[in-house]
Amino acid sequence: MAQIICIANQKGGVGKTTTSINLATALATLGKRTLLVDCDPQANATTGIGIDKTALRQNLYHGLIGEVDARDLVHTTAVKGLFVIPARVELIGFEVEMMAHEGRELVMRELLTDIQKDYDYIVIDCPPSLSLLTLNAMTSADSILVPLQSEFYALEGLTQLIDTVKRIKASLNPRLRISGILLTMFDRRTNLSFQVAEEAEKHFNDLVFTTRIPRSVRLSEAPSYGEPIFLYDPKSVGATSYMALAKEVVER
User: Of the ranges 8-12, 81-85, 170-174, which one carries the lowest mean pLDDT score?
Assistant: First the structure.
């Protein structure tokens, strides 16, 4: 059965989608059959992996409302062993339509159960909020990986996210654990990045990944070409860093 990892942080702009795309690609490159699930109505992971969202007839939304089986939503990618369930703006409707639905927090878990045995890893890219979609992702997951931007105020909101994880663990998903905290946009030229790293390690100890994702122009450029960093610039420091992260994730 696949290990399901959701990439979540209610703060926007911390590198969730970049991490989702490139961690999933790195795992596939390591020989792990991997599924990337885009759970964000903005659908940045969908376009960032090279899928034209305007041409999609069906996406995650149609699976969550029960119109389509999960296997019918899976697309291949340019990376061997990497597959994706795409998203589109319709996902916004899921929040409204499921508000009065009994068991609304468990819909994604039920959708993914049928295909969990088809993969080694399932990586879920969450929206930048503690919404019903994020709640569904956490209820489905074995673990949560939290990208943390190496900037001022980075730790704000992290306590709220961890409290949410504890509540979900207690009521909806006893197996949920925090896989780790990933420092992103790390700039070795500034003291601030090292100060944020020090604070994170002081508060969260071994939960902080050894790998740090550097601030990188190449990482920022790759999504506009619809490519993970491993296709766009495989020798870049971003590619090296995400491969190191994938190996840490596998070891954990």
Answer: 8-12
Q: Which residue has the tokens 């089986």?
A: 69
pLDDT tens figures, 73-116: 999 999 999 999 999 999 999 988 888 788 999 999 999 999 99
